Structure formats: C-alpha cells, structure tokens
Amino acid sequence: MAHLGVILATRRQRSAADPLVWAAHLSVVEGEWSDDIQFETDRARFVGRGRTVRAAAAVGDGWPLSNTSGPMLDPVFSLRRRLTLPPGATARIAYWTMAATTRDGVLALADKHRDPTAFDRAAALAWTQAQMQLRHLGVTADEAHLFQRLASHILYCDPALRPVGDLIKAGLRKVSTLWAHGISGDRPIVLVLVASDDDLRLVRQLLRAHQYWRMKRLAVDLVILNARVASYVQDLQIALDTLARINQPTSEGAHDPAQGSVFVLRTDLIAPEVRDLLQAAARAVLYGDRGTLAEQLDRARDPTPARTFPRRAPGRRRSLRAASAAAAGVLQ
After folding, report:
1. Of the residues 134, 168, 200, the one at which a domain ends
2. What is the tally of helices (H) and strands (E) in the chain?
3. Same domain, 127 and 155
4. Measured on CA atoms in the order 242, 204, 158, 319, is the torsion positive or negative?
5. What is the pTM of this model?
6. Distance between CA 45 and CA 65 in Å, rounded?
7. Judgement on whether residues 86 and 148 belong to the same structural domain of the protein
8. Which DSSP letter does residue 19 get?
9. What pLDDT digit, counting tens, does each position of 104-139 carry?
10. Is residue 52 part of a domain?
C-alpha cells in the first residue's frame, strides 16, 4: 500500500486448519524526508544476479527498488527512504514489522505505529514489563543476560557446549529411546550433570533460566542427571527432586508440556544408551564441577588449549566424571 508506506504480506493457507497470518512492514521518519518511498518484495531483484545478501546490489550499487508487488516465491521486505540532513542535524528512522490474524487488524497496527513517538512509547513499556517479569522470577538483569547467552547455544546449535564429535556419533540412536522417561525429543535439550551438593548452585540457576525461557516462549527440556555414586545418591536425589518441584511455574499454562519441562534422572537407573543419547542430543551440556554458568559460557566463548577447569575445595568428593564413571562407566 504505497499511499500508506506499508508493505503487506500473507501466505495462502494450505488447509482450513492453517492459521491465517497477515504481516506488515513500515518505516517512520523523524526529520525531513522526500515523499518518494521505494520498496521491494522480490529477494532475487533485491540481491541481484550472482550476489549475496551481504553484498546486495540494491544496497551496494544503489539500484532503485522496483516498487513491484504480487505473488513471490522468495519474498523480502525492503523499504527505502531518502532524507535531507543539514549540517549538525539528526534524524531517526524506526522500522516496524508486525503481524495479525486479519488484514484489517494488521492495518490498524500499522496506523497506530506511524506516530514518530510510538517507538519511545513501546520501548518504555517493554522496559517496564521486563523489569516486572525479572522481579517476579527473582532474576537479576545480569542473570537474564547470562540466560540469553545460553539460549543462543540452544537456538543455533553452537558446538562449544556440546561433547566432541566421537561421543555424539556414539550416542546417536532413535529418539524413542527417551520416551520411557517422558522426554519426547521434540524440544531442545539442556543437560546438566551433577554429583555433589555443591553442584546445586548451578542447578538452581538453570531452573531460574528455564522459568525465564518459558516466560519468553522458548520451549526447552532441562534434564538434570544425578551421577553421584550409589552410596550417596539418595540425599542428592531428594534435593534435586525438591528443587525441581518448588521451581515449577504456577501461572496459566505452567503444565503445558509444549513449553518445556524439567526432568531429574539418576545414572544408575537409566540404560547406557539413554545417557549416551542425552549427551548426543543436548544442545548444551553443563557440568556441576566445572564452575558457574558464567564461567562455563566464558570458556565456551574463548576456548584455549591451556584452559583448566576450577578445582574442588580440599575435602570435596570425587569429581563428576569420576562419580559418573563409578555409577555407569560411560560419562567420559
């Protein structure tokens, strides 16, 4: 809709059960700008022959946008505005992308956000809402940033927090291997291995991370694997079960498995192929005896051959790997 400066898009429903979604893209300028708004909806024209998105012809060569619309196999949202900036002047451009279930609904959203002050208003409301959510969960801003860093490993399958390739290959099995323990395998898995009461600090932090991800609609299955040797396993297992239970969300939809769940398992009570598959399938594997979540993420970001893992305080029980090996002989 050129007269409104808005690009509208929808996808044909494949069946009557498919939800209908309308999307809109617009830009709002604070400052002097010319009336001509260029737009492009065809990615091939925007990128150009033999080019890539990083070096698109429409950007690098300054090609004018085609101002065409219609059915597209490979669509793109692209808007171009021309601004006039006198010396010392400033201008701001806000780009909005929004969605609704109806055409009228998405047009109403676009009209609402054409106000230049809409961005400041939305940013203030988002900041206020975020502070209230963090206070409700008992999460600090620094912790939230930490949970977001871990979420990037979950979303993009970063190998830095995964086992080495040989362990992944050895653990590959049918996902149905996990079904007996209630784990569907449909959602990303974060695996944490613990063997000592000192590891409960990391477990508590990951339980808060799980609640934070649920609030952000990121569905993750958190699997806590208790690898303490059999003679000591019960006390730690009770503590883990208690933590998992008291950290279950109580809000609406808290018991919806589609939002991710928490599982507490014991290495001596699950089959070796289950342990192997959990390690192979997990997007991130964390260890209770390798420091805090921040330390493990920092090491993953800057892996150096000379790095060493934090040592236990004197008198601490055997390391997680030793305890796990004693219980199962596999977690190496």
Report:
1. 134
2. 11, 9
3. no
4. negative
5. 0.67
6. 8
7. no
8. P
9. 999 999 999 988 888 899 999 988 988 898 888 888
10. yes
